[in-house]
Hints:
The complex is a heterodimer of chains A (745) and B (387). Chain A is α+β, with helices and mostly antiparallel strands and 745 residues long.
Amino acid sequence: MSTQTPNLTMSGSARRRIKDKLASVGVTTGGILVLVALLLIFFYLLYVVKPVFESAKVEPVSQFSLSLSGEPVLLGMDDQQDIGYRFSRQGGMDFFSIKPQSGYPVGQVILHQQLDEAVTSVSITASATPMVVFGLDNGTARVVQPGFLITYPNDKRTTQAVVKSPLGDEPLVLDEQGRAITGLAFEAKSDKRLFAVQTVDDQLALVAQEGEENFLSGEVEWQTNHYSMPAMNGHIDQLLLTPDLRYLLVRGGNLLSVYNISDLSNIKLRSAIEVNEPGAQVTGISLLSGASSIMVTNDNGVISQWFEVVRNGQREFTRIRDFQAEGSVRLLAAEHSRKGFVTLSGDHQLGLFHATGETRLLSQSLGDVAVTSLALAPRNNGLLVERQGGFDYYRVKNHHPEVTWSALWSKVWYEGYPEPQFVWQSTSASDDFEGKFSLVPLAFGTLKAAAYAMLFAVPIALAGAIFAGYFMSAGMRKVVKPTVEIMAALPTVILGFLAGLWLAPFIEQHLPGVALCLILLPLSMLAAAFAWHQMPRRIKERVPDGWQALILVPVVLLVGYGCFAFSPLLEDWFFNGNARGFITHDLGIRFDQRNALIVGIAMGFAVIPTIFSIAEDAVFSVPKHLTQGSLALGATPWQTLSRVVILTASPGIFSAVMMGLGRAVGETMIVLMATGNTPVMDFSIFEGLRTLSANIAVEMPESEVGSSHYRILFLAAFVLFIFTFIFNSVAEFVRQRLRDKYSSM
Amino acid sequence: MKKWINSGSPWIWLTGGAVSLSLVAVIGLLVLIGWRGLVYFWPHTIYQWQLDENGQQSVLIGELNDSEPVPTARLEASGRQFPEGTPEVLERYLVKTGNREFVPLDFRWVLETDIQGRETPKDLAVIERTTNGNFYGTVTQLLEQGQVVAGDLHSQLEARLARVQDLNDRTRDLQKGAIGAINYQLEKLRLKERRLELDHALTEAAKQELAQARQALNDEYHLHEKELFDLRAQAERDTLVVKDMRGVEVQIPMAQVLDVAWPNDMSLLQKIGHWFHQIGKFVSDDPREANTEGGVFPAIFGTVFMVLLMTVIVTPLGVVAAVYLHEYAGKNALTKIIRIAVINLAGVPSIVYGVFGLGFFVYVLGGASTSCSTPRPCRAPPSVHPG
Lengths: 745, 387
């Protein structure tokens, strides 16, 4: 392509030379800018995607010495992580400053309160703003909650720590006989509060408060009821209530008993399972955020996740997966509103895990002093650790724990699912919802749509290209080629619109006609060819060679019209007037109106001009001396075509197919409008699909900037980019090779 | 026969068939789009049906929109009763009745057996309005200030329609032109005040000056407002009286009327003229009534403007790249890579460009450029709201 400037001595002025030089630099820069543009897209997509795969980090921020009395049961922070709090088993409640932004020196106690009564048991609710219930030795309990009042005097945020009593200042009577409460569990909903109470002699009882709103005053009136539990065998180590108040979990040693308490007058033991790892002892159980999963910790470091799975119509608690921490697990704290958790094992070993992703994100030693307790910040971005003699405060960088390479591309067992599956379900109306980001159904949908489109387009486009490039007369070729190429100029949104709103219902009503067309069209072409062959010679001679395509146009029109006109009759004869019903009921195949068949046809149309145009060029530019040599040696035109032309043009034909595939994979509007966009994985031609491109178009406007969802959509775009990059580059490479070959022939 | 097959001729015909199939598909598609789109503007006949639904007589006026066969059994299952000897399949017609304010839905299904008779009276008119869509009926009278106007109805109507349209145009010009300019000035004053306030330069003198400017603008506004109300009052002078399918005479203010046509009274030539007129209106009008009526001019404008803008930005780059590849590039690996990059830029799916554009131009560059360059305090980029 390049023209070598003759090496003449520049006799012009220096200005001319400078101008020439400038032009050369400018134009070269312009050429290279093309490459830069492509690289910019590539690297920007990578840049957005990258944080998803970054590993979690826990970095120390500050340390301070502060000794507080009692054994810690609850540690926590406010939203801004300015003030920490610590509640002790003995009824002590302390608030202290973590950062100078709180207005106090770091490590100073801001507020201290102490219960006067003797505390015999403690329970903490599972929530980002937990409530603490102290069971007392006289059968009563106090419920307190750490609270923060935020005010803005002089435009400056100040946080004030308070201890709230959400259930009133009076102690609640939980045991009417006044026995000491040795074990306790508590959870509350807006209209119901439930206490599970264990008294001295391992007896269990439930105390429920049910609220009813007074219509006149709008106040909620609470009514307290006591319920007895079925007799327990053995010792009770731990009590836990699920926040939805459906289950009571009772652990005695390694035995976990699950009671269904949704109907308090009819409490049933659902299951009793040994939950320990063989050869190890259970150290505790806790609930993950969302309260569907039970995490069981063992003294050998194994943490197992259990949730209910439907098996044979029965819901059973099933061991789903295990995690390995280092050393005996002493404490497990669930992340708030995510499915992650942190563990404290051994003396001072921190573990950071994500349950659904089945990953250990981090395992790190927290210094060499024994750690007594730890807590995550409400937004999961800070960690407060209590060790002997003081506290450590860490910053946690863990933005996308749920996204791992394996979670994106392999089956994941989500809570409530009967088995591991590929699921794409990015959003829902509920807050507890866990995003399910498997790219497999989308990649599958993309390839399925492309495959059906290619199935439709490749035979027609290649056969047409061969005919147009080899048999057609030059004059006709001049008309036919641009006509077919017009279709490439048609916006795909029009094709998609027609496919979704006109073609899909049309095909649904004329299914037998479609099948008939598929059989009759090629047969009728052959029949027409044979009829032409039998025609008297003088008629045949009047029509020049290469006009077969025009002769066949009325045949195609007539047969096509006939097929669809006959379709209702066929439907009446064979399918009792309802072909769709026959497919769904008698064959048992699901049928969507907008299905892969529609996409295949509509996207096939969009791809035909691409393949046709490039393949036709390749066939047409096969050097004439090759074909003429073959014909001169006595080969028939068909033999010449199949042995010489196609063989020579095959790299070009291959590149045409690759280009078509690249276009089919990236096509958006047609699949968006004609597929129904259900991310299912099924090869069936009668079912819908969702492609990567349509998924981006559907979900991009509603995804939060910087969230995992947003970044995964960018990843989908990146995958698409790579797909098409490979197809296009291979095609172009082959074409360049071919061009060189032809030019040397 | 065998010789014919051996010659390979059937396969050649099959490849020829592929070409004809492609041609039929391309041309069929274009014809389908054209037909479906353009037939909408054709002045359809307005029918007047005599209906008898279980002994209830009524008149239905409207355009025939669609028809479909329905099995009688399905209708019987839904509670309808038919006499013996009713055919197995009945035809059902979809009628566009218009008159949105008087009927629950402006489309209605009518069963073949309910129809007693069908006529096409020449005086049935379709009235295009600014609100509530089309109105179908017979124009009986024209009122001026409540008094019946004498003379030929058609020519009177035409003259008064032109007058009302002229008044409406002037109203719009006034609103968009003079009043819009005043609003723009007021907004500039507000911004000026805000800038002074942020610069702590809002002195009493400046305040007074601003108040004076505001007062002058408000006075000017009141003048225009009076003119506007005057124009509106003039437009409300005439009223059209139309008898609809219930036999009720309905008064339609001329100010709401956009067009009146009598399709049943048109010759073919007139129909073609009307068809072109309707297409012209579709292309040049603004949309009305939440995009269900009116034209698509803003969408056309947006498309053309975007394409022009894109061309201006991108053409130099494209031409320079082409010149480079053809004239300057050496025969080396870099040229090959650039050629592959060109092909890829053409082949990368548009959705990837969309994602890149949203992320890079809107969130990165857009966020950086708007955060501190306005006379307001720095704030988060306006684009953090998805959408």
